[in-house]
Design a protein that fits this description.
13 strands; globular; 5 helices; 369 residues; single chain; alpha+beta; five-stranded antiparallel beta sheet; SH3 type barrels; 4 domains
């Protein structure tokens, strides 16, 4: 029952890309067995289905997707990104069964076309809609019958006043790097050490998550269940937070990943200040991560002080698969077990992964031009 897109056809062998179902993302398969029995058949539904564009959920990183038709069916772990393009497989009232063509999120699933109050979450995408020289069409759509359809989501505005946070720091403006100063993004004080993070707790998380629009105004972080150090890398202090919300919400992550600056006396702190990469990371995570044509961690809060060089970034904790599943063909939205730097040769199907990586890099290059 899996749905695939034809990339190449050589006699009885099909080079495909997986659109829905489980199995390898790309590969070669036979169309039929030697006795003539068919293994694959062309699907009319994938060609005839209408295209829809996601217009809702911009403040939440996309719209909720469920595994089944019913609104009580389990929610998928990822949202369908705002601006994503999908093809209709079935429409039942306000519920749309789709396959994703662009953007990020589940490959297929069920989503509501609009909320009960009438606010549209998906709209039919007319040919040529949204195309303009300043917003180029994503390269991925070139393989979908050359349809001139809207591009992947783009931020409504990139604040010019935040350009200075992209670095470098101005030597004469940098003061006490142990001090707490308001951030350039949201104008509030923020913790920049594990001790401060623990001390400021749930009240601070609620205030800043509301300010960033990461959680609904009628919900709050009720308590921080645990905070533990994360060991890995050498450019930041990292921690894992487990939180509880006043109103449990399947759309909100209870495990969060926090990055903060190295201690002032650390041998790499001066180098980090010289490179000034952190402001770019916060900026990217807040404005651009959701626009990427691949899975990214959802932004909850981030800020940086150009006076103290202190910063913080809070995202979802990405759930990497356990090492026991290394080598398995994972399902949509799953992330393979972590591979240490320089050990890419340990990856199963490494060539396919590099091909996918370069295809996505090419898309980003095309969007930038």
């Amino acid at each position: 029952g899996a749905l695939v897109r034809e990339l190449a056809l050589e006699e009885e062998r099909l080079h495909y890309e997986l659109l829905s179902g489980q199995g390898p993302q790309r590969g070669w398969v036979s169309l039929r067995l030697k006795d003539g029995r068919e293994l694959l058949a062309r699907s009319a539904r994938g060609e005839a289905g209408k295209a829809w564009r996601v217009v809702g959920g911009e403040d939440k990183g996309g719209i909720l997707v469920r595994s089944g038709r019913d609104v009580s069916s389990p929610a998928e772990s990822e949202r369908l990104s705002t601006g994503a393009l999908v093809r209709e497989l079935e429409l039942d009232g306000l519920r749309l069964h789709f396959e994703r063509l662009s953007g990020t999120g589940p490959r297929s699933g069920w989503a509501s076309v609009r909320l009960e109050g009438g606010k549209a979450l998906l709209v039919e995408a007319e040919e040529g809609a949204g195309a303009s020289p300043s917003r180029p069409l994503p390269a991925e759509l070139a393989g979908v019958a050359r349809e001139a359809l809207p591009c992947a989501p783009a931020p409504a505005r990139l604040p010019s006043e935040l350009a200075r946070t992209l670095g470098p720091y101005t030597a004469g403006e940098v003061g006490d790097i142990t001090a707490n100063h308001p951030g350039a993004h949201f104008g509030e004080l923020f913790p920049h050490t594990p001790e401060q993070l623990k001390e400021w707790g749930a009240e601070w998380l609620t205030k800043l998550f509301h300010l960033a629009g990461s959680i609904p105004a009628d919900n709050r972080v009720a308590r921080v269940v645990s905070q533990r150090e994360f060991i890995g890398g050498g450019a930041a202090v990292k921690a894992i937070l487990e939180v509880e919300y006043e109103r449990p919400d399947a759309d909100l992550h209870t495990e969060l990943f926090v990055k903060m600056p190295l201690p002032p006396g650390h041998k790499n702190r001066a180098l980090n200040i010289q490179l000034a990469f952190e402001g770019r990371e916060v900026f990217f995570s807040r404005f651009l991560a959701r626009c990427m044509p691949f899975r990214t961690a959802r932004f909850y809060f981030g800020d940086i002080s150009m006076t103290s060089t202190n910063w913080i970034l809070v995202t979802e904790k990405v759930a990497f698969a356990d090492n026991s599943r290394r080598g398995e063909a994972l399902g949509p939205g799953e992330v393979e077990p972590v591979v240490r730097k320089g050990l890419d040769f340990c990856l199963p199907n490494a060539l396919d992964k590099y091909v996918a990586l370069y295809r996505r890099a090419a898309m980003l290059t095309a969007w930038a031009h």
